[in-house]
Amino acid sequence: MADIKRTPLGVPGLDDMLEGGLLTGSVALIQGAPGTGKTTLGTQFLYQGASKADEAGLLVTFEQFPHTLYRDALTHGWNLRELEQEGKLRVVFTSPQVFLSSLQSPISPISSAMRDMAVKRVVIDSVSQFRVLSHNPVELRSYHNHLINGLRREGVTSLLVSEDSGRTLCGVTRGAWHSSSIRSSCCATSR
Q1: CA atoms within 13 A on the CB side of 112
Q2: For a designed S-S bond to 129, which of 62, 75, 110, 154 qualifies (C-beta 3.0 to 4.6 A apart)?
């Protein structure tokens, strides 16, 4: 049996539970209520990759301004601005619409930046914002599949952050994730 390559999250206990981390090149969903540490986990994943494993990262945020993320990361001793200046990290504040169209085009600024920086790790915060694009479950599933397929096409290990709707855990109900392709790679956070 061939060795399965893993990408550590940078959280010792969690990495142990995951037998060394996420499968390299996979897409995982981190779901939980507001304030449970989803964004912090995603930021730690990128910081550890850039500072310890020499793996460039991309943080795409639809809700938080970059200066807020920089400030919050500093409380943990993670200097994201420094990593950006070194070309090891890029923080992008955009909308779900713009990001999806960028990911679908191999010549878009985001796709080009991912290749130019040789990005290995991506965090999308928060995919819950995709609900503004459509209330139709079939359309929403299509958007989710475009996102996942675009990330897989780039060969990056990705964390998708999602607020728990309170109805189900990684479920397939209205407003939740409709892609069964990531249900097996789900981690829930709680207080």
Answers
A1: 3
A2: 62
- Domain layout of the chain by residue ranges: 31-189
Please write the tens of the pLDDT for every residue from 6-31. 999 999 899 999 999 999 999 999 99
Contacts of 57 (CB under 8 A, 6+ apart): 45, 46, 47, 49, 50, 83, 88, 89, 90, 119, 120, 121, 122, 123
User: How many alpha carbons lie under 13 Å from residue 101 in its C-beta half-sphere?
Assistant: 5
What is the spatial distance between Cα 191 and Cα 95, in angstroms, rounded to a whole number?
Answer: 28
Sign of CA dihedral 35, 44, 65, 71: positive
- In this prediction, the residues of the chain whose per-residue pLDDT falls under 50 are 168-185, 190
Distance from C-alpha of 26 to C-alpha of 40, rounded to nearest angstrom: 20
Query: CA 127 to CA 61: how far, in whole Å?
Result: 9
* pTM for the predicted model, two decimal places: 0.85
Residue 103: its pLDDT value, please? Answer: 76
The CATH architecture to which 31-189 belongs is 3-Layer(aba) Sandwich (3.40)
**What mean pLDDT is reported for the chain?**
85
**Using an 8 Å Cβ cutoff, are 47 and 10 in contact?**
yes
- Using CA atoms, how far residue 84 sits from 24, 34, 152, 168, 187, in Å, is 23, 27, 24, 37, 28
